[in-house]
């Protein structure tokens, strides 16, 4: 049985007129029917269970109902609906420094607090010295409490509350107690308690702390349970929500889609992955697309900057002689012709950038951003029957054989307060061009789609040595790298449920049209 | 290590206790579990009351004695002529009445004054009230000793009937707890209560025949005095100490009924609003 079970708990909170009004006002308002009590649900239908040794992090914006929920778990408040069961003794550390009496001495307060927490006098007599030593208040024992600094107060509170090994430990923003040295000590103590088998519940605004400590996460917003489950994924979603890259409803949809089971999991949302997912979905297969980056489209992703559609990873000009591919992409986007020189039958940029094309390809296919393959496997290892992996093949095997190498370049974007920087979209500077010395290409994005913004965005590209973590362009594919790639292929052969595709998965350069053609062929083969 | 075991024990009991909360089980069993907290609360309330006073608890004795002195000097002329042992007569009224006001006024703030605690730790809220009552009771005990000294000086005989005083004292303790519960709950909802109650106690002081004898009123008016519980307690003391007679069984029952009403009302208030206090503080 779980140590803590919170079952469909709803807590109705009261606010409104009743506070701070006297009897006269009360009677007057009652008589004139102006007496209002606002009831609102601080928590609504919250459910989770917690086992021994687990640590639950509760995240959510201010007013999400976190503290109210903690009070219900601690038994200070009764849930309006639902119930909470607790197996064992509870130590709740809520708003630590309050609840002390300023007129009493440190020692008296320590005993009083110990008594409140349910300790015995004997226990307090025996541990008092230890408590004072831990709180580093040896020289202040007979001071009156109000003379202490707030850091000292919190230290004492923490020291008293952490003196025992509770079965259930409830912490409300308390790990950030005191100065750096004490914080270390208190975190160590906390970990000791958790390691001792306590079930811990932590409310923290530090996402870092939650990521580091918690084994699972409960996400509340406006009292509503958004999700409860894997720490890495939910912290990632919450961060995206805070960054306003996804809405709450999207977060809920994402969480719901992660809880399903799929025929195909497509890792990476570049053109290869998206095309493959489209084809599978059209054949009635259930697909889920994930991308470790917080956006869809991989390297073709675009971004609106001052009304200019900027390609995040350098200019992407779609050009093809393949009629089948050209027809295919035109199903999802209309293209603005490009007059530059590739000499192909069809050349252009999708109206509004590549994001529209990606959205079209993924229409009706659940796609999750900010969730990496590793994160997903940790949380939902059995989410799909098969996997298409379009990330780096060496990354998939955690670089066990070494890093495959790529060409790289450095792009410096500049937003300029002028209408136009150059006449063409893409200009390769002359060798004697001193203004652009070292620069291999200058791209002014507004020309691609003939955008009318009063400002302009220009990208200056410089050659750059590739190092792990830097932008990956073309696979190097020399003898050494190909030998390495073969080793990875051999490893991949031992993973029958996973196929590798695309530029990074196959360690092979694809133009965009080639990537789509390859994905179409792959999909046809896999059906 | 041993203490550790005990602590775990206590905590297990606490959890069981949480369940009992719902079933509304034995208050006294609970009190035993919270004994340490209770002791600490009483200590705290005591220290706070007498902090930075030179005489400390001496005030608890000195204040009523001064009051007694003034009342005796002022009123003997008007009311004391037909009342034997007039000083003891007033003293009987004073100790009962001051214990009552002391306990209830202290109790009124019991919930509000401890909001910082019960919003953060799960403790039974009546502990705060009981702690205040213990403090008032100790004061009362001290003055009671002085009272008996005065009784002896006044030449009144100590008879076996004095044992009967345990009855009104016990009743008064419970009565004060009940009224304290009502007041402390009301005070959470309406802060006006403290002013209303101040006025009320002043009126009550005049209506409780502390310094006058009700013999001069007609029979019906005299019966009306019996509706005042405080008068009952005072009357009981005077009967035993001055008149050396034990009141009738009906008198006892009437007092018991008053106590039941006060305590019942208080418990009902706590039961009903226990979970709502949190919203108002």
Features:
heterodimer; A: 527 residues; alpha/beta; Rossmann fold; six-stranded mixed beta sheet; five-stranded parallel beta sheet; 17 helices; 23 strands; 25% strand; elongated; B: mainly alpha; 2 domains; globular; disordered N terminus
Protein described:
The complex is a heterodimer of chains A (527) and B (281). With 527 residues, chain A is of the alpha/beta class. In chain B, helix 5 runs antiparallel to helix 11. The N terminus of chain B is likely disordered. In chain B, 74% of the residues lie in helices and 0% in strands. Chain B has 13 helices and no strands. Chain B is mainly α. Chain B folds into two domains: 29 residues; 247 residues, no CATH class. At the A-B interface, strand 1, helix 1, helix 3 and helix 4 of A face helix 1, helix 3, helix 6 and helix 13 of B.
Provide a concise account of the structure shown.
The complex is a heterodimer of chains A (527) and B (281). Chain A has 527 residues and is α/β, with parallel strands linked by helices.
Element layout with pairings:
The complex is a heterodimer of chains A (527) and B (281).
Chain A: E1 4-16, H1 23-31, E2 37-50, E3 55-59, H2 66-74, E4 81-86, E5 90-93, H3 106-116, H4 121-135, H5 150-161, E6 168-172, H6 180-195, E7 199-203, H7 207-213, E8 216-221, E9 224-230, H8 231-242, H9 248-258, E10 262-267, H10 271-282, E11 287-291, E12 302-305, E13 308-311, E14 318-320, H11 323-330, E15 335-337, E16 346-350, H12 354-361, E17 367-369, H13 373-379, E18 384-389, H14 393-396, E19 408-416, E20 426-427, E21 441-444, E22 456-464, H15 479-493, E23 498-500, H16 502-505, H17 512-526
Parallel strand pairs in A: 3-7, 3-8, 5-6, 6-7, 10-11, 10-18, 11-17, 18-23
Antiparallel strand pairs in A: 1-2, 1-4, 8-9, 12-13, 14-16, 15-16, 19-22, 20-21, 21-22
Chain B: H1 2-23, H2 27-33, H3 35-49, H4 58-79, H5 86-108, H6 115-118, H7 126-153, H8 166-189, H9 193-207, H10 219-225, H11 229-241, H12 249-273, H13 277-280
